[in-house]
Amino acid sequence: MAKRKVDTENRGFQTRWESEYMFTKVAGKPVCLLCGESVAVLKEYNLRRHYETKHADKNKNMDMEQRLQKAEELKRGLKSRQALFKKAKSQGQAAVKASFILAEEIAKSARPFTEGDFIKNCMIKVCDEVCPEKRQLFLNVSLSRNTIAERVDQLSINLKEQLVKKGKDFIAYSLAVDESTDISDIAQLSIFIRGVDSSLSVTEEFLALRPMHGTTTGHDLYEEVSRCVNEMELPWEKLVGLTTDGAPAMCGHRSGLVAKIREKMQEENATGELTAYHCIIHQEALCGKALKMEHVMSIITRTVNFIRAKGLNHRQFKAFLTELETEHGDLPYHTEVRRLSQGKVLQRCFELREEICLFLDSKGKDTTQLRDEMFLCEMAFLCDITSHLNAINLQLQGRDRVISDMYSTVKAFKTKLTLWETQMRKENLSHFPSCQTMKEKLSTSAFPSTQLADKIGMLTTDFRRRFADFEAQKSRLELLGNPFAVDVESSPPNLQMELIDLQCNDALREKYAAVGAAEFARFLPGTMPQLRIQAAQTLSMFGSTYLCEQLFSLMNLNKTSHRSRLTAEHLHSILRISSAQSLTPNIDELVEKMGHHQVSPSTSNK
Prior knowledge:
Layout: H1 16-21, E1 23-26, E2 29-32, H2 44-54, H3 64-108, H4 115-130, H5 135-139, H6 145-167, E3 170-181, E4 187-197, E5 202-212, H7 218-231, E6 239-244, H8 248-251, H9 257-267, E7 275-278, H10 280-287, H11 294-309, H12 311-324, H13 341-351, H14 353-362, H15 368-371, H16 373-396, H17 403-425, H18 433-441, H19 449-466, H20 468-472, H21 474-481, H22 493-503, H23 506-515, H24 517-520, H25 529-539, H26 546-558, H27 568-579, H28 587-593, H29 601-604
Parallel strand pairs: 3-6, 6-7
Antiparallel strand pairs: 1-2, 3-4, 4-5
Helix pairs in contact: 3-6, 3-28, 6-27, 7-9, 10-16, 11-12, 13-16, 16-18, 17-19, 17-21, 21-25, 26-27
């Protein structure tokens, strides 16, 4: 005979049991109103036995009406206690969630963990004035240094788990790697990942910041990058590109990071070939040095330093400009590592050239060089060409930049250089306003257009040389940039049939015109798998290490001389939170995981 299962007998709770045995039903189980114990099986015999064994003497003198009143009173008390417990639990969860939210804001604002105590003190003072009856709720929010540090680590772990989960769907990914030194002279290796999933959605996120206490050879860099890839459980055969800062340890042909990763991919029998790029923004900045006009910049820097280095000179110069009612009231400093500062300094010095000479004359300084017409022409040219270089630099910066768009920007600039060189030889200065100003003011000598045109030619040559690796990928990049203009016959055989289908599809052509090149890839139909894979690989590539450099700026904001003892783990957590772009911490999930934490005694005793 089969064993009986009581949960299938549909036994129901009888209302009369409340007064007869002092039981009520809570969450499907009978619970004693007198002692709070529950009975496992909903059966009258079990309830009667519990009552007669433990509580028979307590209510033996009560009649049925009194027993009903007693049962109702006990039920009201039970419901009141349940409501209080739920409220306490809800308030406790709200306090934990608030601490997570504030910890995230502290991390994003680069403030020390001890700021939590300051914030809490401010909250309490505001509460005392606005809603003093809720003071205890604010006191329950834990914002101590240790709590904030713990919350930041938990938020970082949550973001990493989300990234690992997304990484499992990547069909192609690339890495951007750069290295810098923090305030404690510890080398820090920054690694970002850009992955594309099967729907051709792009995820661009911080992967890791690895402290390197010893050497920073290509082998050392490879070990750290390899560890990150393995921790993310990313397959090596899906690695498409690697963008670096171009340092020898990164790009060495035999022992550099690029060479080591290529060896690793061969060991893993990866079918694809790794495409390595030197950061476009770095190369653009290096091209500017091909002008060989350091003599002009050195005179400008020396002049600015004389005015700015001494407080008295600086104050007098600003007062002098105020007295002359000039458009600008000061000179900026030039910092080598801040590439855009050179253009700003040159522009300001050119506009204030006469005022600067007058001020230096009043200080007894020789201004012969600053008044020389050839020097002024060179300064005007350097001012204009640096302005153009800064403009392209800004165009190349930013997150979520598609490498094909960046290539188009560089390609357009090279075409502009060719035009400027031709126009300069004809003394057409339409795109060089400072040069135009100098030409109009020249008294004796002619404007040196030929020499300056040669400078532009040198710059053009250097651009072509430095961006030769991008020219080698020209067909690949143009395939994403404008697949409708690609020559089918010169394309890889595995793409030719799909390209013909694409270029003959009027609906897809209209969609391309509507959404643009970067978004169009997502609308490629599943009947074009080779084009989708090709698009995914190109979309995954980094054109620059901009994100790494931006991260180093965040690192320097967080790890200062006042926070030099910030641990590597905490620094890593802070940077993951503050640099997150498409990912956000799931705070509700974290609070739920901490549900076993009890609310404070002060709350439960209220």
